[in-house]
Amino acid sequence: MHRFEDDRLLTGRGRYVDDHRPDGTLTMVLLRSPVAHGRIAALDVEAARGADGVLAVLTAADLDGMGVGPMTVRSAMANSDGSPMIEPERPVLARDSVKYVGQPVVAVIAATEAEALDALEAIEIDFDEAPVVLDLEAAVAGEAPTIWPQAPDNIGIDWDKGNPDHTARAFAEAAHVFELTVRHPRIAIAPVETRGCVGAFDPEDGRYTLWTGSQGVVSLRGAMADYLGVEQDRVRVITEDVGGSFAVKIWPYPEQVLVLAAARALGRPVKWISSRTEGMVSDAMGRGRIDRAGLALDADLNFTGFRIDALADVGAYWNAVNATIVTGGACRVFGHCYRIPGLHYRVRGVFTNAVPTDAYRGAGKPETVSTLERLIDVAADRLGVDRVELRRRNLVRPSDLPYATAMNETYDGGDFPAVLDRVLDDADWAGFARRRAESEAKGRRRGIGIGLHLHATGGSVAERSEVRALPDGTVLVRTGTQDSGQGHRTALAIVAAETLEIPVERIRVEQGDSDFLEKGGGTGGSNLLSIAGNTVHRTALKMIDQARQVASHLLEAAVPDVEYGFGEFRIAGTDRTIALGEVAAGWDRIPAEQRDGELGSGCMAQLDFEGLHTTFPNGAYAVEVEVDPDTGRVTVERWTGVDDLGRVINEPTARGQIHGGIAQEIGEVLLERVHYDPDSGQLLSGSLMDYCLPRADDMPFFDLAWAPTASPNALIGAKGVGEVPSIGGPGPIINAVLDALRPLGVEHLDTPMTPELVWQAIRDARG
After folding, report:
1. Of the candidates 624, 609, 478, 602, which has an alpha carbon nearest to the alpha carbon of residue 552?
2. Tens digit of pLDDT for each residue in 351-383?
3. Who's near 611: CB < 8 A, 6+ residues apart?
């Protein structure tokens, strides 16, 4: 089945933030800090306030007078000793100092963008610049200046999880210990559609309305209300179509607060749309972690311990939920598919003079999983054993399930050995030597890599679903999740249609309006089907039970005698039926006193998520690359994947998710890295001329297969897919490149493995 969204989106009928311009809309532009760290020595905006077309110029002092508060985190964590993490106050507009290039300092609102930009040039600002902190290791070693006085060592949190004593003993008693430092650089998320927002205020009912791209309107409503100092029922958030997010649009941002505050002050809608370059310096970034990792093995080559001591680059401020990402999010699948009794993860969140980081597709798990997969290849190489057999020896077996880890996760399903065997067969692993020889005959070096992966789905469980039968025979489904291009409407429509036993074309899915539902955690953690899908299924069943009460009234039959199937109710043993749409129409004709009594809510039901939200989609990828030793260029030649997603609800959507995630990871491993000047803190990769995203010709053809197993936590059988390729992709690509380079003497490279880096490594190895 194709995706319902495609016909509309591919014919130009999508509606994005920039398509929304109410009558009288003003334009907002921002003066952003041109320096990474310093005190604001002087700020004069009077000339800008008098410029043509300008209606307002807002500074931090103005926001104070408007009652706008600071942007507090949405999810805080405590240190390992129980003390609170250090959270510096994050103003919407910089007050006395700036902490990163791109930090908003002044907002200018004018009739047109051109007038606003002209006024921006009239602002006079001077800084007393201070030294910058960008090097994580120097920041925590006392070799760098301090960003925040309350964090003299630049550490915002020091957190750990696992069984550290057991792990320490495992390393002390190990027959073999292998250690590796792996650097996972910052990534610019850069979705096709840049961020944007439109704010409006209705003085009659005192309500704010925000149109913005998001991954969940309910959580944004709560954040906006908090920052504006009003009750939540005075804020409405609307998200229409979204041109990609990958987590960057989940969070509340200063610009959203500003358009709402300005709209109230000016009595007209206010709009802001980011340019690509502006987004590069202001969007939350992904990754940014250094792993000092170790793997312990006994004499029989069983894994006995795995540990990471990590430094996480959080930027100048904590972003909305990054404290949970660098801590718990990063270690949920610690050890992933392997039996490792000793597990310990420690992380220190480090403040730097850079834009804040937060979750990016995989949310801490891609770093953890790829670090372990790299270590396994290192161990196999140094021990002289087969890397596949080393993995197979240590896999969690079906007989081990349910398998409890030291990170308090219990794997409920999966057949990891079968997935490994399947991917080896599909990839023709045994025939690789022939392909390597063919590449060498052309002057290329060919490598092959393999990696297994596991995801613990989840995200927010604050999901509420509504299912309502309508008189025209259609069914309305409302959800607190939010599509940002993945095809959620199709997937949830299929779930509802199957539960109700009606054609999927009769289902209409609505999302993206905080007035629809009082509760909704949004999309994240691959939670669409594991949370929203299960809840829609339960809600549809409840709606049928309630509608049976109405049908029995209309059919003049006892409730136990009324059966439901294929969109209609029937008196058991007779041919007397009534369609679901007729029941919905009849509900409106029933006297109010009966509707409020025994007939309950009639043909509408709402339910909140219940049960265990975590499923464990998993899989294995085998990757082959070619390296040109004369240029250092790496090309991905073959990609073979086997994934256990449970039941695949809509195959085109699932394959699209896998394809997109693989493309992002090829870019992350081979091409992408955010570059800041280490002395000034200036962003050097501030445009797509300087930041290299993957393109179509960087992709191979993908050979993908499914190997589903059941999960007792999934009522509808589906485990989730969105972050699976991002978690599983990096390890096998990295291992394949190093497999190609190892005969040349190259044993370790950090990402991105750009042509320059690979070429230089080959030259250095050759002396």
Report:
1. 602
2. 999 999 999 999 999 999 999 999 999 999 999
3. 534, 713, 715
